[in-house]
Amino acid sequence: MVVQEKNNTPAAIAACHDPFMKIALEQAACALGEEEVPVGAVIADKDGVVLAADHNRTIGLNDPTAHAEIIVIRKAAELLGNYRLPGVVLYVTNEPCVMCMAAIIHARISRVVFGAEDPKWGGAGSLYTLQSDTRFNHRPEIIQGICEDACRQIMVDFFKSKRHKGYCANRRT
Ligand SMILES: [Zn+2]
Q: Which 3 state secondary structure label does DSSP give 89?
């Protein structure tokens, strides 16, 4: 698989990124099976080699920072033996939150591809637009809307089922 698009038509962009987002969606489904918020992420290098794939683990790890993006950034950095990841692409099913966008900028990740927008936490265009803040010394390219319907639906279904079960009332906050 090759990450770089041959041209920038919507169909070409989707064809290029869909296979990686499908892996991220598989990870989101794993999260669902663990009753975690179903967000999955993948990091691929510039040649399209998948370096890491994982999902949200905040509840299982009792770790508010264990978002899918943070986990794959840590894994890829360890694999490459480098705290910076220039040239890699991070795929994530849901728009990265502010924390994850900051980590993406710290890691110097070149490109972020996400599926569904997150109006409550999104740091890549919804609540904040950190990628275009010129006060930072690195600005990742953002591509959004890849496999958007599937990425949104898994979140909608999760929260609908949790509301049905009284999830919010029973969570320790
Ligand atoms: Zn996050």
A: strand
Cα of 68 vs centre of ligand 1, distance in Å, is 7
DSSP assignments along 3-38, one per residue:
-S-SS-SHHHHHHHHHHHHHHHHHHHHHHHHTTS--
pLDDT digits (tens, 9 = 90+) for 31-63: 999 999 999 999 999 999 999 999 999 999 999
Residues 66-107: tens digit of each pLDDT: 999 999 999 999 999 999 999 999 999 999 999 999 999 999
Query: From ligand 1's centre to the CA of 78, what distance in Å?
Result: 19
Round to whole Å and give the CA distance between 4 and 25: 21
Q: Which two tokens stand for residue 116?
A: 């569904």
CB 83 within 8 Å of CB 77:
yes
Could you give the residue numbers annotated as active site?
69
Q: How many CA atoms lie within 13 A of 73 on its CB side?
A: 28
Residue-level length of the chain: 173
Report how far ligand 1's centroid is from the alpha carbon of 7 (Å): 30
Alpha-carbon gap, residue 138 to 101, rounded angstroms: 11
